[in-house]
Amino acid sequence: MAIAMNKQMLRKEYLKRRDHQTETERKERSAAIAKAVFSIELVVQAEDLLLYADFGSEVQTEQIFNTARRMRKRIYYPKVEGNELSFYRVEDLSELRVGFKGIQEPFMLRHTGGDWIYAAVAIVPATVLGRDGYRLGYGRGFYDRFLSRYPSIFKLGIGYQVQLAEKVPHDSRDVRLNGIITEEEQLFFQKN
Q1: Average pLDDT for 156-179
Q2: Which one in 76, 133, 156, 169 has a CA-CA gap of 20 to 30 Å to 127?
Q3: What distances in angstroms separate CA 162 from CA 71, 94, 139, one per listed residue?
């Protein structure tokens, strides 16, 4: 109960910080984050990229999508199905429509499959990112459940510097990231 309460309070505080940035700041910082993402050799080498459609004040991901397309990567976006995330291949952003909680999701359901899960890089959104490698999302556990099923996926959390905390409360259901990128820092963690 104490961890859940701490998560809730931390999430609320850091969402306020993220929301307080101007649109210009978010755009400039998102561009710096996108550039930093592709400075990582593992991302450059990966054939498959799991991305998300930004929502509200999240890091904007269109530039990441466009760069990945130019590099001829296969790109997948999440769709909420029941209590789980499923990822579907997207070749153009016009293939996204408003879905769960107003978030853009794929509607042309070219389902994922095969070996992509072993060599993929997942770009993971967050409300709070911890220097300890843990993150908070919006509290529903979608990403943690998905990523726990595919431990070989390289998990790269992205967020603004204002979302970076020293530590994030976590329990056994929370999946640790392999890396975190903000517009100012890159942090990497050993695989568990």
Answers
A1: 96
A2: 76
A3: 30, 31, 19
Q: What percent of the chain has pLDDT over 90?
A: 78
- Average pLDDT value for residue range 109-118: 62
Q: Which of 66, 71, 56 is nearest to 18 (CA)?
A: 56
Domain 2-188 homologous superfamily, CATH: NagB/RpiA/CoA transferase-like (3.40.50.10420)
Which helix (H) or strand (E) segment is 78 a member of? strand 74-81
pLDDT at position 114 is 54
Which residues does 165 contact at the CB level (< 8 Å), separation at least 6? 10, 14, 128, 129, 130, 131
Asked if 34 contacts 63 with a C-beta cutoff of 8 angstroms, the reply is yes
Helix and strand numbers, DSSP H then E, in the chain: 6, 13
Helical segments of the chain, H only: 2-19, 23-37, 41-45, 62-70, 116-119, 142-149
Distance, CA of 137 to CA of 143 (rounded, Å): 8
Q: Where are the domains of the chain?
A: 2-188
Q: What is the mean pLDDT of residues 92-120?
A: 80
What is residue 140's predicted lDDT score, i.e. its pLDDT?
Answer: 86
Considering only CA atoms, give the Rg of the chain: 15
